[in-house]
């Protein structure tokens, strides 16, 4: 039996890193994207747990960089079928898994303008396991219909598409996506949260099974690895994130 | 080496020259000789120095003067090395109407040029200050409609640059079909894959051919060769652009093309329109392994740039004023 810490000992970021690592199981090559400390941490944890079977590229890292031909290599991997998993967020995500990274209001003169679509309008089509990730689970993020489709959740059959949404992870739950039905379903709810809370804070309809399990927390050993090792590895690219989430590790280092 | 040259060098060279002259030098018969040719060259020939003139500039401001209003420029993402000192010099010179291409995204550099009114059109996949948050002047310029934006996705900009690098009119690329990114780009086309018997639509991206690529790198030699190390995307930027303007941490007396270890990571001078030394030239951004971002300064920029007035104060203090040198220490 593994030793499990109490839920209140675990920070949300640590839980999310653990869930993401689980979703990456069996992958050979994964990469995190821009502004992605938690997905980056999930990749690094998954690599640790893979015992050497997984290669990890952390975008912006020197220590965990696998590219020697410039940033375009990431996109080439995807088209070559080498990249097994990637991560996308979104200012808005809708019930068809469409993602908006551009802004709210009429394009181009948006009322609220976000950074932009990055590689989403390409990687979402080509990476088999795209994990959608947001640190905010509210109705302003999970909307009925996005204002701008940076990249669509599904495509018509004639469009070349080997990838797409594989899972959605938020601070309160984990969802899956059914490509044929074009609909999300609830997979598990994190400890301390409820199905009602998920439904109240999701602006689109989702399938809810009769029994929704509670998300399994990281065991003590996993938590120790995250705090003692992953924290330092992710600090290379995300020092401000690491200082906020892992102050003990940062101070000790 | 002098001793060896006296002992064998002249003989070997003369023997080679003689064979060439007699038409007897051939890959088969003389294979062992030719296999060692590079080593002989290193040992026995004095390399001729063909230094191009006019590449090395005395000041970053003199580099900035090369960029006319209305130029199409391309800049890399922050990890490649951003020519911030050159960017400040461009703001000082008051450059206008730039068409700014970002390979594939930009941050402080784009925000500053936009805030200073230097950019007419931006083609980018994102503008963000990363861990420091959204780009305030970019957001303001989108909000008031003063900036023309051509939203893209990262590999599409790479593809356009690669097409220009290869001198071909366009590059096909997967993805994008069904997105509003594609729907808003009337300069991009969807065509049937001519090699497929089945319906297979694919997006065609036109070549992006900038006038200038702007980068910051670790070092240059006096010939204008630039050490780019692992930042191979610079080769694409430089190949696609008519000329590349470079600032470097230092200019060295070496020839970077002489040694394979540096040559493999070198942008040859033939692409370079001008280079100037700028110590801490990427400040306040991080640069390779050389120095980290100046976090305190970035935070103060974000705070100042929230308003047009605050941004103007920032420019007065750090771009047109002389506080920059002190702050970078």
Quick overview of this protein structure:
The complex is a heterodimer of chains A (253) and B (329). Chain A is an alpha/beta fold and 253 residues long. Chain A is built from eight helices and twelve strands.
Our Rg estimate of chain B from Cα atoms comes to 24 Å
Average of pLDDT of chain A: 96
Mean pLDDT of chain B: 89
Here the CATH topology of chain A equals Glutaconate Coenzyme A-transferase
Give the termini distance of chain A in whole angstroms. 32 Å
> What count of helical segments of chain A does DSSP give?
8
Radius of gyration of chain A: 18 Å
From the N-terminal CA to the C-terminal CA of chain B, the straight-line distance is 44 Å
Shape of chain A: globular
* Assembly type: heterodimer
Q: What are the key terms here?
A:
heterodimer, A: 253 residues, alpha/beta, Glutaconate Coenzyme A-transferase, five-stranded mixed sheet, 8 helices, 30% helix, 18% strand, B: 329 residues, 2 domains, 13 strands, 37% helix, disordered N terminus
Describe this structure in words.
The complex is a heterodimer of chains A (253) and B (329). Chain A is α/β, with parallel strands linked by helices and 253 residues long. Chain A has one domain: Glutaconate Coenzyme A-transferase, CATH 3.40.1080. Chain A has eight helices and twelve strands. Chain A has helices spanning 12-23, 37-50, 72-80, 120-126, 195-200, 220-235, 239-245, 247-252, and strands at residues 29-32, 55-58, 85-88, 92-94, 99-100, 103-104, 112-113, 129-133, 142-143, 165-169, 173-178, 183-189. In chain A, the strands form four sheets. A five-stranded mixed β-sheet of chain A has the order 3-8-10-11-12, with helices on both faces. In chain A, strands 5-4-9 form a three-stranded mixed β-sheet, with no helix packed on it. A two-stranded parallel ribbon of chain A has the order 1-2. In chain A, strand 11 and strand 12 (183-189) form a beta hairpin. In chain A, helix 2 (37-50) packs across helix 6. The longest helix of chain A has 16 residues, at 220-235. The radius of gyration of chain A is 18 Å and the shape is globular. Chain B is of the alpha/beta class and 329 residues long. Chain B folds into two domains: 52-169 and 208-329, Glutaconate Coenzyme A-transferase (3-Layer(aba) Sandwich), CATH 3.40.1080; 171-206, no CATH class. Chain B is built from 14 helices and 13 strands. Chain B has helices spanning 2-22, 31-35, 37-44, 60-64, 84-93, 108-115, 136-143, 154-166, 180-183, 233-240, 260-263, 295-304, 308-318, 323-328, and strands at residues 56-57, 72-76, 98-103, 119-124, 148-151, 170-173, 189-192, 201-206, 212-221, 226-227, 243-252, 266-267, 272-277. The longest helix of chain B has 21 residues, at 2-22. Classes of the chains: A alpha/beta (253), B alpha/beta (329). Chains A and B meet through helix 3, helix 4 and helix 7 of A and helix 7, helix 8, helix 9 and helix 10 of B.
């Amino acid at each position: 039996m593994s030793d499990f810490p109490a839920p209140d000992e675990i920070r949300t970021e640590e839980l999310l890193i653990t869930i993401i690592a689980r979703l990456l199981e069996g992958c050979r090559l994964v990469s995190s994207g821009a502004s992605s400390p938690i997905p980056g941490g999930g990749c690094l944890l998954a690599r640790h747990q893979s015992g050497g079977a997984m290669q990890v590229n952390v975008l912006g890292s020197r220590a965990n960089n696998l590219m020697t031909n410039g940033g375009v290599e990431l996109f080439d991997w995807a088209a070559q079928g080498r990249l097994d998993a990637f991560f996308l967020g979104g200012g808005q995500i809708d019930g068809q898994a469409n993602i908006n990274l551009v802004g709210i209001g009429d394009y181009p003169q948006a009322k609220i303008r976000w950074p932009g679509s990055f590689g989403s309008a390409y990687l979402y089509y080509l990476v088999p396991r795209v994990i959608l990730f947001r640190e905010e689970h509210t109705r302003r993020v999970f909307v009925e219909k996005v204002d701008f489709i940076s990249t669509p959740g599904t495509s018509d059959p004639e469009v070349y598409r080997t990838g797409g949404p594989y899972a959605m992870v938020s601070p309160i739950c984990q969802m899956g996506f059914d490509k044929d039905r074009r609909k999300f379903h609830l997979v598990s709810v994190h400890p301390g949260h409820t199905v009602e809370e998920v439904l109240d804070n999701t602006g689109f309809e989702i399938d809810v099974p009769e029994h929704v399990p509670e998300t399994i927390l990281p065991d003590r050993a996993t938590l120790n690895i995250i705090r003692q090792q992953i924290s330092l590895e992710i600090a290379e690219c995300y020092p401000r994130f690491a200082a906020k989430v892992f102050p003990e590790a940062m101070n000790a280092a | 080496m002098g001793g060896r040259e006296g002992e064998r060098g002249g003989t070997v060279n003369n023997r080679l020259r003689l064979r060439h002259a007699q038409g007897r030098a051939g890959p088969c018969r003389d294979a062992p000789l030719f296999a060692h040719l590079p080593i002989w060259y290193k040992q026995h020939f004095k390399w001729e120095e063909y230094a191009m003139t006019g590449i090395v500039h005395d000041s970053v401001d003199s580099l900035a003067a090369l960029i006319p209003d209305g130029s199409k420029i391309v800049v890399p993402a922050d990890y490649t090395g951003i020519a911030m000192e050159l960017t400040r010099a461009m703001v000082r010179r008051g450059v206008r109407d730039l068409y700014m291409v970002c390979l594939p995204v930009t941050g402080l550099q784009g925000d500053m040029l936009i805030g200073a009114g230097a950019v007419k059109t931006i083609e980018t996949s994102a503008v963000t200050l990363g861990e420091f948050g959204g780009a305030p002047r970019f957001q303001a310029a989108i909000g008031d409609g003063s900036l023309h934006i051509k939203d893209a996705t990262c590999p599409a900009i790479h593809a356009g640059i690669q097409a220009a690098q290869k001198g071909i009119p366009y590059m096909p690329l997967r993805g994008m079909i069904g997105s509003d990114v594609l729907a808003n780009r009337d300069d991009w086309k969807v065509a049937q894959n001519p090699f497929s018997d089945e319906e297979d639509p694919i997006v065609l991206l036109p070549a992006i051919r900038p006038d200038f690529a702007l980068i910051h790198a670790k070092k240059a030699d006096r010939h204008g060769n630039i050490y780019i190390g692992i930042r191979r995307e610079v080769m694409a930027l430089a190949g696609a652009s008519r000329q590349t303007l470079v600032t470097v941490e230092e200019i060295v007396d070496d020839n970077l093309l002489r040694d394979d270890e540096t040559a493999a990571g070198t942008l040859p001078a033939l692409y370079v329109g001008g280079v100037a030394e700028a110590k801490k030239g990427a400040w306040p951004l991080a640069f390779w392994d050389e120095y980290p971002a100046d976090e305190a300064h970035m935070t103060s920029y974000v705070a100042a740039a929230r308003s047009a007035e605050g941004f103007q104060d920032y420019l007065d203090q750090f771009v047109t004023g002389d506080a920059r040198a002190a702050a970078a220490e």
